[in-house]
Amino acid sequence: MGEGDIIEVHDLEHTFDGVEAVRGISFTVRRGEIFSFLGPNGAGKSTTINILTTLLPLQKGTVRVAGYDVAREAPEVRKAIGIVFQEDVLDRDLTVWETMEFHGRLYAIPREERRRGIEDLLRIVELDAKRDERTKNLSGGMKRRLQIARGLMTRPEVLFLDEPTQGLDPQTRMRIWEYIREVNRAGTTIFLTTHYMEEADMLSDRISIIDYGKIVVSGTPETLKNALGEDVVYLETADDRRARESLRDIREIRSISESPRGLSITISADGSHCLPRIVDKVRGAGVGISSVNLKKPTMDDVFVHYTGRELRDTGA
Ligand SMILES: Nc1ncnc2c1ncn2[C@@H]1O[C@H](COP(=O)(O)OP(=O)(O)OP(=O)(O)O)[C@@H](O)[C@H]1O
User: Fold this and answer.
1) The pTM is what?
2) Rounded-to-integer distance, Cα 204 and Cα 265, Å
3) Which structural domains are found in the chain, ordered by start?
4) What is the edge-to-edge ordering of all strands in the sheet holding 189-194?
5) Beta bridge partners of 159
6) Which residue has the least CA distance to atom 11 on ligand 1?
7) Distance of CA 96 to the CA centre of its chain
8) Ligand 1 center–CA 37 separation, angstroms
9) What is the predicted ipTM?
């Protein structure tokens, strides 16, 4: 395990009755970072997170979490981590406070420390006013916040979040992102799975894109997007044909095509540096320009580039 690595996965494979859910993945997560697994439904994200959290037995490969081997030291791994599941696993008849209290007792947290911990966490996720409400009466966003608070009861070194904002409305999602960042700033490493491009992009220090049980690419959101080198300039001109001709000797232009937004010019370098020259050339040829747009690659573009298809948003 590297000095700063808190999770280390080597050649992990997992099969369910002949279905290869995870097909040989390796990656590391550094202490203190927010790391995301981005991929469509069925890509193998839940299977991986379940193995890392010892909920599924290890079949093949090696996995170390917080310095412990998941196969041989499962209890130690469990003590070091917190988990927030995808589905609602709250006891419907317990109140918010009881939910926390019960979890704290399960982990044998001393009474006074438990009480203070619950107070603090309910304040962080803004549920202190709901402490006596039964969980069945909470909204979906409140339930998720309670699950996050509960996952943090044990001050885990690593918090695992499986699709933390699945099915939530945009405002609630953004709030949850804030809580996740806050928890991370306080020193907890975060491993999360998501099929939301924006979530992975906004939240992560590093992302691995997973598809059909394999990691297709990993990196920081910035490097992934920049590596595509596919900035596109959209240009609406008075005369597209002459505009195209005037651009012939700009080396960084990879291709030009017509689109509903005008000429679509793909640049093989940083588009913001090419843009002034493009405008100068077209104007220099006496062609009027009515609008200019620069589009940088998004995480969607990265996803399409590496998997060859779009990730349809099946959530909210
Ligand atoms: N208990 C199981 N029994 C049989 N097959 C399973 C089981 N769990 C998962 N699979 C299969 O393994 C593959 C990966 O599933 P997994 O749940 O890990 O994907 P995922 O990326 O987490 O997607 P989702 O977000 O929908 O959970 C899928 O083909 C799925 O049908």
Assistant:
1) 0.83
2) 30
3) 5-225 (3.40.50.300), 230-296 (3.30.70.260)
4) 81-84, 158-162, 189-194, 34-38, 206-211, 214-219
5) 82, 190
6) 21
7) 28
8) 14
9) 0.94
